[in-house]
UniProtKB/TrEMBL annotation:
Short name of any one Pfam family annotated for the protein: HIM1
Source organism superkingdom: Bacteria
InterPro entries registered for this protein in UniProt: Him1/Fmp52, NAD(P)-bd_dom_sf
The name this protein goes by in its record: Uncharacterized conserved protein YbjT, contains NAD(P)-binding and DUF2867 domains
Length: 221
């Protein structure tokens, strides 16, 4: 039986890895993006859209699995309101489209400290997204909550680059209950998302960084 997937956020760090991996597992892949990916020999359907008009493309969400890797920073977005639109409004609307179109499962990347009651704006928005997604009562919802994400980003993020340089020095100390705080490779998150989809387990599921690493270790081409 052929499988189909839809990806949002293919131009990002996790989304870029995920797109490559999806081509090995799915017969049909729909990519929604606001700018061309410029990949040669593409084996997916690329749709250039305005994310403010996601509902106009709801029919494209009639797939098995929807992968959402949308995300930005307040600095890049320009304001808290613009950040919230990318990290809360768009993922939530995508999930609503997925539910109405009949998608079987929705997978999304948030953050380790996501909490709707957090005093920190970033973590609060991520937590509010998780809560709103759960209220939708999707057939199958997988929320991945990574720690610091490692990988080569196209845009400069000074603080994250500094943390990446230091990570080999302190990661070994994060053992036992502290393993969840270890930085994690973007590709491992992508691998874990696909593994989660393959399990086909109804309900809502959340995964910490250490759990994401365990799922990535079980990934098989």
């Amino acid at each position: 039986m052929s499988k189909s997937a839809l990806l949002l956020g293919a131009t990002g760090l996790v989304g870029g890895h995920l797109l490559s991996l999806l081509t090995l597992r799915y017969e049909r892949i729909v990519v929604l993006t606001r700018r061309e990916l410029n990949k040669q020999d593409a084996v997916y359907e690329e749709h250039l859209i305005a994310f403010d008009k996601l509902k106009e493309h709801e029919s494209l969400f009639n797939v098995d699995d929807v992968y959402c890797c949308l995300g930005t920073t307040i600095k890049k977005a320009g304001s808290q309101a613009a950040f919230r639109k990318v990290d809360y409004d768009y993922p939530l609307e995508a999930a609503q489209c997925a539910k109405r179109a009949g998608a079987k499962r929705f997978l999304v990347v948030t953050a380790m400290g996501a909490d709707p009651k957090s005093p920190f704006f970033y973590s609060r928005v991520k937590g509010e997204l998780e809560a709103s997604l759960e209220e939708l009562q999707l057939p199958e919802l997988h929320i991945l909550k990574p720690s610091l994400i490692l990988g080569d980003r196209k845009e400069e993020r000074t603080a994250e680059q500094f943390a990446q340089q230091l990570s080999p020095l302190f990661s070994w100390m994060l053992i036992g209950p502290l393993k969840r705080y270890r930085p994690i490779q973007a590709k491992h998150i992508a691998m874990a998302m696909i593994e989660a989809a393959n399990r086909q387990e109804p309900g809502t599921h959340r995964y910490r960084s250490d759990q994401i690493e365990e799922w990535a270790a079980g990934y098989a081409d």
